[in-house]
Amino acid sequence: xxxxxxxxxxxxxxxxxxxxxxxxxxxxxxxxxxxxxxxxxxxxxxxxxxxxxxxxxxxxxxxxxxxxxxxxxxxxxxxxxxxxxxxxxxxxxxxxxxxxxxxxxxxxxxxxxxxxxxxxxxxxxxxxxxxxxxxxxxxxxxxxxxxxxxxxxxxxxxxxxxxxxxxxxxxxxxxxxxxxxxxxxxxxxxxxxxxxxxxxxxxxxxxxxxxxxxxxxxxxxxxxxxxxxxxx
Amino acid sequence: xxxxxxxxxxxxxxxxxxxxxxxxxxxxxxxxxxxxxxxxxxxxxxxxxxxxxxxxxxxxxxxxxxxxxxxxxxxxxxxxxxxxxxxxxxxxxxxxx
Lengths: 232, 97
Hints:
The complex is a heterodimer of chains A (about 230) and B (about 100). Chain A is mainly α and about 230 residues long. Chain A has helices at about 10-40, 45-55, 55-65, 70-85, 85-95, 100-110, 115-125, 130-155, 160-165, 170-180, 185-205, 210-230. Chain A folds into two domains: about 10-165, no CATH class; about 185-230, no CATH class. Chain A contains twelve helices and no strands. Chain A is globular. With about 100 residues, chain B is mainly alpha-helical. Helices cover about 75% and strands about 5% of the residues of chain B. Chain B contains four helices and two strands, in the order H-H-E-E-H-H. Chains A and B meet through helix 1, helix 2, helix 4, helix 5 and helix 6 of A and helix 1, helix 2, helix 3 and helix 4 of B.
């Protein structure tokens, strides 16, 4: 991809790796914007959710819960449970951020999402990933999320084109790529398989919102056990 | 909502980034990306409309196989995304799925 050479290398690297996130977030942002308005949430609150909450799955779940007549407290509790996985994600990123200042960490954390986490984890472990690129990924992701939200608010009829262009598959395809990059040894392959299938199983037994967190905890722990077992 | 979604993202960075963690904890955290990405990906491919769908009719799952192979061989995120999207769009337009 050619990016204007006047842009600093850190920023252009960030834009390059953020590209799949950008094409994935716009359609989901549109879906959120459309649904939020249809459910009767005001334009202001819809935009504010994308601006200050910036958590795609939680926002969509919140809209669904509002529609089902759930209380504000239950929406907030659910959003918290769904986002517990971010504890694990930012904890996993923390060893790479030793030299960062507190204010930088605070700004960075605000925009960490599932998808940007995947990109950060892959890029940090490959080395040679600058702070500037990491922030570029986060900012590009949130701008595309806001742009999608805005388009969804103003033009709900665009929804029908999303399926034809397979824009809904951008994020699953990106997760496949991110998983392959992150899973660079045999133990990690086993960890990924355990966590993946447990997550499906937990979902099936109606642990719905908890499935990802539980599966991740067990999967990562099984990696440690496997290490010990292999060494013996 | 902004508070409950921000706290889990920020607290680990605030408390963990400036300290050296025991080796075992760092190794455990090293497994988190593979585990959490798989835990999010597998249900998105295998569960359609809240039901487990293990069949050739599951377009998400079928497209995932070549997407995985491309990602594995090329190690290219962009290649994986393009492969997946082209396959899904093609299947929908040509096969009318």
